[in-house]
Amino acid sequence: MHMLKTIENFIAMVEANKHIEAVEHFYVVNATLKDNQSTETRGKERRIENEKKLLSTIKKMHSKCVQPYFVKDNNVVIKWQFRFEFKNDTSIDIEEIAYQQWNNGQIENEQFFFDPKQLIPKPIS
Q1: CA–CA separation, 52 vs 37, rounded Å?
Q2: How far apart (Å, rounded) are the C-alpha atoms in residues 57 and 88?
Q3: Who contacts 39 (Cβ-Cβ below 8 Å, separation ≥6)?
Q4: Radius of gyration of the chain from its Cα atoms, rounded to whole angstroms
Q5: How many CA atoms are closer than 13 Å to the CA of 8, on its beta-carbon side?
């Protein structure tokens, strides 16, 4: 039950758009991240740098977990919906699946699955 509460806290933090805080709190130092089939990146600090770079381009953001999420042992699957409205008056809507491996209340490995066509910005209407 403790793990479920931890996952709920993680989801709440992301939905509150506290992405950097979520990485700081819920990822191990050497966490790995992979988008689709790309080369993995390693390290919490690198992840934080990438988040800061992205967030510096955004004027408004919406983050939502599409319930239910799934847990089996230390494996978690979450469906996310994100809307990014950028400072250049474009936006993207992303729907993705995150597959995570947790250990002692923190994420060790995470892989995102999404359609890369979603990354093409559109004018904000």
Answers
A1: 23
A2: 8
A3: none
A4: 14
A5: 5
Per-residue pLDDT of the chain (125 residues), as tens digits, is: 589 999 999 999 999 999 999 999 999 999 999 999 899 999 999 999 999 999 999 999 999 999 999 999 999 999 999 999 999 999 999 999 999 999 999 999 999 999 999 999 999 87
Backbone φ and ψ for 21, nearest 5 degrees, come out as: -60, -35
Answer yes or no: are the C-beta atoms of 17 and 61 closer than 8 Å. yes
118: tokens are: 């979603």
Omega of the bond prior to 123 within 30 degrees of 0, cis?
no
Quote the tokens at residue 30: 């050497």
Helix or strand holding residue 5 (H, E): helix 2-15
Q: Is 9 left (phi over 0), alpha (psi -120 to 50) or beta?
A: alpha
SS3 115: coil
- Residues linked to residue 115 through DSSP beta bridges, in sequence order: none
